[in-house]
Specification:
The protein is mainly alpha-helical. Helices cover 64% and strands 0% of the residues. The two termini are 28 Å apart.
């Protein structure tokens, strides 16, 4: 597989990849919320519905940008180096009916930091000012999503509902 720096990506490829990944994130968060609701964990379920709605907002912004720029629909095959959502997940967390909040929040950390890095990379590489502005805004939004997940993590740790997470061990500072 090519190194991330060696991968060349066009604005249409980046936009279509982002659309695809935002849709997956929206669906994944809704699935997690459904599992948490079934486990009578309403607060956490509500958090993931909010996360899902935020990703849906990104999806809609990207669709508008794509339509305004007359970019063709479709998901280009760009390879794993440009996808921040993979079925196996680097955290080792899998979505299952009995998923606990601790695992769900670790998954959010992974997904949001991956999305933020993707958008920051695309903003840095984009020569098109509109695309640079869009990707920069999305990177900031993903950083905020990351913050919200950490905030919820801290709240549940203080309430003793989950074990504290050592973010250094997860690769987060």
């Amino acid at each position: 597989m090519a190194h991330r720096e060696a991968v060349l990506i066009t604005i249409p490829e980046a936009v279509n990849t982002a659309i695809y990944n935002e849709k997956l994130a929206c669906e994944r968060y809704r699935d997690i919320a459904e599992f948490l609701y079934k486990a009578d964990n309403k607060d956490a379920g509500d958090f993931f519905i909010d996360q899902s709605n935020r990703e849906l907002g990104h999806y809609n912004s990207l669709i508008k940008f794509r339509d305004k720029r007359h970019i063709k629909e479709g998901v280009p095959a760009l390879g794993e180096s440009l996808r921040w959502l993979t079925p196996e997940g680097g955290s080792g967390v899998e979505i299952r009916a009995d998923m606990n909040l601790h695992d769900a929040l670790i998954l959010v950390e992974e997904m949001e930091s991956g999305a933020e890095k993707f958008y920051r990379d695309m903003a840095e590489k984009a020569e098109d000012l509109d695309a640079k502005e869009l990707f920069t805004k999305l990177a900031v939004d993903e950083s905020h999503h990351h913050y919200l997940a950490r905030k919820l993590q801290a709240i549940y740790e203080l309430k003793g509902k989950i074990e504290p997470v050592d973010f250094d061990d997860l690769g987060f500072e």
